Amino acid sequence: MIQYDAIYLKIRDAIVAQQLEPGVRLPEDKLAERFNVSRTAIRKVLQRLAIENFITIQPNKGAEVRTPTATEAQEVFDSRVLIETNLLPTIIANWQPSDAKNLSTIIALEDKAKAENDFAATIKYTALFHIELAKIANNHTLSQFVEQLAFRSSLTIAVFGTKHSVGCDCGSHAELVSLLDNGEEESAMKWMTHHLKVIQNSLVSDSDNKAVDFNSLFH
Fold it and tell me: Which positions fall inside the HTH gntR-type domain (predicted)?
């Protein structure tokens, strides 16, 4: 199971980081060869990724990275607005000074990625910020749900996003940390709603399919 989990995380992270773009085929034989496991083992990993909506598996066609529809993209962000905004009162109730420090570390990595125009890394750290923030609420079920939505958002942004999707228009996460640190619940909830809505409204339809060298990718 540990080996399955490691392979799952490598493939999922490659999807989130846009190293495996939407529409890219995921052949069982090539992945099994690369990871030195059986096709049965790879099939289990792909089935898990399919359940979590990262890939699709079609009979006689195999697996490929999921290409979300415009409707799905809107639904994902509508769900995030509903859940993440309403988690903030609980997050504030559980807030510790160390939380600000931990989140600021992620913000620094996010800012560095933005400064280097590394779109994929910016998406990665943006998602990580929201995932770690949700954990502060100390509700495992909801934090898991936020994690899945954040990763699905990364896939959505990979398909429909632009630099505006992770740019200054949606605000700096440091602003939210400051509000949480000061216990400003109402302002924090307004900030989160605005933040996610700006990203949602920045999405456009544009994607290409590319071939992938799995040996080079998963070195």
Answer: 1-68
| Pair 49, 137 in one domain | no
pLDDT at residue number 44: 95
Three-state secondary structure along 4-19? Answer: HHHHHHHHHHHHHCCC
- Name every residue whose Cβ is closer than 8 Å to that of residue 113 and which is 6 or more positions away in sequence: 121, 122, 124, 125
Residues 120 and 20 in one domain: no
3-state secondary structure the chain: CHHHHHHHHHHHHHHHCCCCCCCCEECHHHHHHHHCCCHHHHHHHHHHHHHCCCEEEECCCEEEECCCCHHHHHHHHHHHHHHHHHHHHHHHHHCCHHHHHHHHHHHHHHHHHHHCCCHHHHHHHHHHHHHHHHHCCCCHHHHHHHHHHHHHHHHHHHHHCCHHHHCHHHCCHHHHHHHHHCCCHHHHHHHHHHHHHHHHHCCCCCCCCCCCCHHHHCC
* Distance separating alpha carbons of residues 102 and 204, to the nearest angstrom: 33
The model's pLDDT over 17-49, given as tens digits with 9 standing for 90+, comes to 778 888 899 999 999 999 999 999 999 999 999
Say yes or no: 42 and 81 in one domain.
Answer: no
The DSSP output letter for 2 is: H
Would you say the pTM of this structure is higher than 0.85? no
How many whole angstroms separate alpha carbon 151 and alpha carbon 157? 10
